[in-house]
Amino acid sequence: MNNKLFLFAFLLSSAPLITCADTTIIVTGQVIASPCVVDTGTVSKVVNLGEDTKQNLINAGDGGVWSDFDLLVQNCPTGTSSVTAKFTGNADTQDPTAWKNSGTSNNVALRIASRDHATTYSVNSTMQVNVDNSTRSSTFPLSARMFTPQGNSTAGTFQSVMNVDFTYQ
């Protein structure tokens, strides 16, 4: 009987040690705007630089005629204020600020610049454009041309690929 009383007294004395703990669970998230839509004419954009003569691409830095083109992002939801384009691809081996020519012409690369040619866009560079509140779109006005980073270009074909990733803020 004493053993039972002792066990009962022990259990009663240890009852305050068994307690419940209050727990707070914090659940977080974020509501974001749906993305803008890349215009179908921008998705697989082809910019024709035309033909140039190797005589126009003799000295380092010589370039052909600039060809203007636009990249268009549209249907941006309300709350989206800007769109950023990141330009990626294969850099030219002679000039890392240009895109590599995968055609047969040697010593020729692709130069991408702002429409006024004041800013050169190189591989992994970005360009940010505000969303027009009335049209809910962003237009990226760009120019492209063939140029020779080193001089002494050779006759042949010219082809270069530039990838663009768009992010929205």
TrEMBL record:
Concerning InterPro entries, the annotation shows: Adhesion_dom_fimbrial_sf, Adhesion_dom_sf, Bact_Fimbrial_Adh_Pro
Alphabetical UniProt keywords:
Signal
Q: Which gene encodes it?
A: fimG_3
Q: Does the keyword Signal apply?
A: yes
Report TM segments.
none
Put simply, this protein is called: Fimbrial protein domain-containing protein
Q: Which GO terms describe its cellular component?
A: pilus
As given in the record, the signal peptide range reads 1-21
What's an example GO BP annotation here? cell adhesion involved in single-species biofilm formation
